[in-house]
Amino acid sequence: MINSNQINYRIIGSDIQIVEIELEPNRTVIAEAGAMLYMTEGIKFETKMGDGAEANQGFLGKLISAGSRVLTGESLFMTHFSNEAKVKAQVAFGAPFPGTVLPIDLSTLSDNTIVVQKDAFLCAVLGTKISIQFSRRLGAGFFGGEGFILQKLEGNGIAFIHAGGTVVERTLHNETLRVDTGSVVGFEQGIDFDVEPAGNLKSMLWGGEGLFLTTLKGTGKVWLQSMPISKLARALRPSMITSE
Length: 244
Known about the structure:
Helices cover 16% and strands 47% of the residues. It is α+β, with helices and mostly antiparallel strands. Residues 58-64 and 138-145 have low confidence and may be disordered.
């Protein structure tokens, strides 16, 4: 069990990971609908509109904030898990596809913010603000693999995101990194991402790397995944067709 300033947690598994969070009495975590795997006695859950980051926000504000999540393909509602017992209790969350659960301490990042692909968020401590961010480049939206709409996580606590396969963390220092499309999990605010052609016409057509590559430029941390769910689906499709 890892002891942080906000919560205690442990990552369970190797290839298909889950996160188990230990909550002190009267502490709460928020999660995507359907992400809960198990919970011990004392944990109570409630489905609410929005992430609860702004308790004083009016109904209209909550509706607009929560409604923006629909654009990312997520549910209008989020589930809040609270420990109402007088002792510690545990709740665990699992990702919807095989891969890695990555804990991110938002307080250590630039502007306390990380931008992630639209389906990467798993759970976080209460107070984490979850909103959307539009891609500023048409090319990135059409060909970058992440689409026009990304998720932005802001706060001072721990957030957990999930990725396909193995996760690689790199820190760029005013550098450029070229990445296979769809393999970007997340990046700090100081990173700009776009797409560019994958070499000359011959390389694009016959190189096996696709027509475009994602480019990450700037200074900050980036997180990459070795097996995006889209790539896994493409790999499985021929065998599924053959079996039929």
